[in-house]
Amino acid sequence: MTTHPIDEHVHELGMPAFDQRIADAVARSVELGGEKQTALKAKDLKTDQEVRWCPGCGDYVILNAVQSFLPSLGIAREDMVIVSGIGCSSRFPYYMNTYGMHSIHGRAPAIATGLAASRPDLSVWVVTGDGDALSIGGNHLIHTLRRNVNLTILLFNNRIYGLTKGQYSPTSELGKVTKSTPMGSLDHPFNPVSLALGADATFVGRAMDSDRKGLTDVLRQAAEHQGTALVEIYQNCNIFNDGAFELLKDPLTGTQWSIPLVHGEKIVFGPDGASCVVADGWGGLRVAETNQVDEAQIVVHDAHREDPAYAFALSRLSHQDLRYTPMGVFRSVAKPTYDAMMTDQLEDARSGQPADLDRLLHGSDTWTVEA
Amino acid sequence: MTHSTPEQPTTDTPSSAPGGLVKSVVALDRVVIRLAGDSGDGMQLTGNRFTSETASFGNDLSTLPNFPAEIRAPTGTLPGVSSFQLHFADHDIMTPGDAPDVLVVMNPAALKANLADLPGGGLLIADSDEFTPRNLAKVGYAENPLTDGSLDGWQLVSVPLTSMTTDALADSGLGKKEAERSKNMFTLGLLSWMYHRPTEGTVRFLERQFRKKPEIAAANIAAFRAGFNYGETTEAFAVSYEIKPAPMPAGTYRNISGNQALAYGLVAAGQRSGLPVFLGAYPITPASDVLHEMSKHKSFGVRTFQAEDEIAGIGAALGASFGGALGVTTTSGPGVALKAETIGLAVMTELPLVIVDVQRGGPSTGLPTKTEQSDLLQALFGRNGEAPVPVVAPRSPADCFDAALEAARIALTYRTPVFLLSDGYLANGAEPWSVPGADTLPDLRVEFATEPNGPDGEFLPYLRDPETLARPWAVPGTKGLQHRIGGLEKADGTGNISYDPANHDFMTRTRQAKVDGIAASLPPTEVDDPDGDAKVAVIGWGSTYGPIGAACRRIRRSGRSIAQLHLRHINPLPADLGDILASYDRVVCPEMNLGQLSLLLRAKYLVDVQSHTQVRGLPFRAAELAAVLQDVIDGTSTVTPTTASEVTP
């Protein structure tokens, strides 16, 4: 393969040679505007747009956490793209000085898939909510997860429809009384972590909006993961579902009912480590009192376990009233990414048969009519 | 020119065949052959092979495959009949032919389903082995029509095709069932002899196709040769036919189907724009072959993505467009319905996107394998809000190539989604194509934005090119041009969210003006009126070009004048169209829908367009269309819409 100057750009960006015009535009912008800046501060990621969530919304906390954390990844802001769907959380891209698309309801994972699959040089993020990702966009979510496209999905779960003013969502608890369910909802809720693991997601984590440290920790691991990472973020909607996660946020009950997951450590939680997780003898897991079991019986968390059944069992510990909710990284396993495999196929095809449009158009059976 | 009755032989040359048989060779100027059999009989393959032989011989040709939506309906039943019609000639032809001159039937069901189309006196070749009591009973024949005299009005040749095939393969080592499967190749061999077709291509094809199963390749080749030799030696066929190559403009030709030409056009668009092509698609008849074809061309930087649904297909394509690719999605009518919201997003975000709709019979699931033009208004108006989308339509299988390039040109130049409206007839039909040189194709290069364009050194993603009204295309990764786009209304210039009433009014009108302005880049409308004195014009769009053109030739041969206009661009319509239509006393618009283009023309130009429509899942017959046009010219009838009471099922 001959190398010409443009090919070098392509090479530096880790893009296949077909994308030379894109690489060339990127290189030209650097020529004109100076080197890419990867040493960013949180303020570099803010836009001139006024943030328009309700005062007190959990989305503010998440936005701040993301803006503070992203610079640590060392990625230039022009190399980040945030794609969202519809809903309160999906306004997110407008407040981030990166590339962004506020798309249509439920479709962000599909749009991000096309972008990430064709531009492996970019850091692509999807911001979505429980209604957006799990109702109207449920199909795209599961297929994106199984394909393992290299993107990070932040699923803000407030267990309610906020932008449409307070209908129950696919994560609302059974019997939820809302505007559309005055006698209580009849739908059994999704557990988003279980759903993602059922789709064989290679990375699944869960964090709380108000827990800056825990959230940042999960986000960092998600961002570093090669493949589709799903992070469920419990987010308080103080207008339509205030206090939805109070059980886990309250210092007293939070310690009792949340189960912190740390890879390589025994799963022990509760006041003074009074509770722990053990095998239930049926292939699943159960909560036990630490002083009632052998220490050797306590499960040591292994996020890298290939079989998703273990992480799934962890996700099933929690009840819909949020008792026994594991927080942290459930699963993080290495698998080839869709975009890398797609790029490989393209490069393989090109090395086997160089692109020759005339040859393609002629095919193998032609005849000539003389003048 | 097409005729509804077979041509008279023009020469009669005796020739001798092995075995001392004297056979004559009759020269014809055109033939329409229809092969019909069970879905499992390989009629489509046989037809395609005969087509390739015919193309390489140099005849002009046009094909009409017709097959059921069921992959394998119960064997030997009417719903399982699959057919392939080929029209080939020593001159330029426009349609696959109204009716066959020769009908080959592989079983009683194929006879029953197709006999009505074979004009009296036509040649009928039947595989007598398959006319068993059981097969006859399946389709309700009380008696064997091959022997009861009911086919006396046709030239019937009963040939035991199946048993002759198994006899020929007796030493092949194949079992009887497997050997029987080669009967289509035996039939192809017989036809190849009858019409003096070259055979090397088929032999090569079979060797290639069954590379990994040499014994199957050998059996098929043996059956093919046996069929050819049978024709040469049998007394059943005393005549063979010669159709000389058609004079065509100098050039290199190949045979090509519409879907293949369309895929090549998209690959070429990627090459000529220097952009990677990203095709997001979900399998759907009759568009899937475009996905199949595109997926073979990864070496051209074509990424194909088989999505989880139609919505993800177009969503991924739009995401790739945001990233700097030429995004394409391919589908058929029901898929377009699902993609509507994303098309609206593409209108709002003003990104290039090609939406290929290979139309089929509707509504709903409709007739998946049959052709129709009933998605025109869906393409134009099937979205919420004022969401103008340009519409381009190819007029013949080979023209799908140029139309795809044109759709890409508009998408890239104007940063807009564009509809490419093909249909089932174009998709599966084939014709010779004069292969263009790659360097003669349109230059589709576009410039990405690489630096800020605002007065204060900022980037304004909705600051437009004054000529095209296109907005800058700044791809992620470009330093300093970070911006956010989306489905909410954009403020002029900045692209920020805006709910300002005046801004929305302005942006709505600007998006419309951008699409309307494409008309300035279109060539003048071609009016085909060789006599120059036509008072009646016929206007069409898409795949009706062939049948309308053939009908016009008939009209002119009868001494009348008619002008033919055919639209490639339906949105925007050409700037000169209103004046042209107004200059005729009468305008007739035949369509394979219930009058969608005529509705548009009447609304836009206040011209009293007369609509002639048909939705039979098949292309118009030239003779029928000519009769309609003749009545309009002679003033004996105006075209009126068919009412339900006049419809006979």
In short:
With 371 residues, chain A is of the alpha/beta class. Chain A contains 13 helices and twelve strands. Chain B starts with 11 loop residues before the first strand and ends in a 15-residue tail after the last helix.
Description:
The complex is a heterodimer of chains A (371) and B (649). With 371 residues, chain A is of the alpha/beta class. In chain A, 33% of the residues lie in helices and 17% in strands. In chain A, strands 2-1-3-4-6-5-11-7 form an eight-stranded mixed β-sheet, with helices on both faces. A three-stranded antiparallel β-sheet of chain A has the order 8-9-10. In chain A, helix 1 (5-13) packs across helix 2, helix 5 (130-136) crosses helix 6 and helix 7 runs antiparallel to helix 11. Chain A is globular, with a radius of gyration of 24 Å. With 649 residues, chain B is α/β, with parallel strands linked by helices. Helix content of chain B is 34%, strand content 20%. Chain B starts with 11 loop residues before the first strand and ends in a 15-residue tail after the last helix. The chains are: A alpha/beta (371), B alpha/beta (649). At the A-B interface, helix 2, strand 1, strand 2, helix 4 and helix 6 of A face helix 1, strand 10, helix 9, helix 11 and helix 12 of B. Strand 12 (366-369) of chain A pairs antiparallel with strand 10 (251-257) of chain B, so a sheet runs across the interface.
SSE layout:
The complex is a heterodimer of chains A (371) and B (649).
Chain A: H1 5-13, H2 20-33, H3 58-69, E1 80-84, E2 99-102, H4 108-118, E3 123-129, H5 130-136, H6 138-147, E4 152-157, H7 192-198, E5 203-208, H8 212-224, E6 229-234, H9 246-249, H10 251-257, E7 258-261, E8 268-269, E9 275-279, E10 285-289, H11 308-315, E11 325-332, H12 338-352, H13 357-362, E12 366-369
Parallel strand pairs in A: 1-2, 1-3, 3-4, 4-6, 5-6, 7-11
Antiparallel strand pairs in A: 5-11, 8-9, 9-10
Helix pairs in contact in A: 1-2, 3-8, 5-6, 7-11
Chain B: E1 12-16, E2 22-27, E3 30-38, H1 43-57, E4 60-66, E5 81-89, E6 102-105, H2 108-114, E7 123-127, H3 133-138, E8 155-159, H4 161-168, H5 176-180, H6 183-194, H7 200-209, H8 214-233, E9 239-242, E10 251-257, H9 258-273, E11 277-281, H10 288-294, E12 302-306, H11 310-322, E13 326-331, H12 333-349, E14 353-359, H13 376-381, E15 391-392, H14 399-414, E16 417-423, H15 424-428, E17 430-434, E18 484-486, H16 501-516, E19 527-528, E20 536-541, H17 545-557, E21 563-567, E22 569-571, H18 577-582, E23 586-591, H19 596-605, E24 609-613, H20 622-634
Parallel strand pairs in B: 2-9, 3-6, 6-7, 7-8, 11-12, 11-13, 13-14, 14-16, 15-16, 20-21, 20-23, 23-24
Antiparallel strand pairs in B: 1-2, 3-5, 4-5, 10-17, 15-22, 19-21
Helix pairs in contact in B: 1-6, 4-8, 6-8, 7-8, 9-10, 9-14, 11-12, 17-20
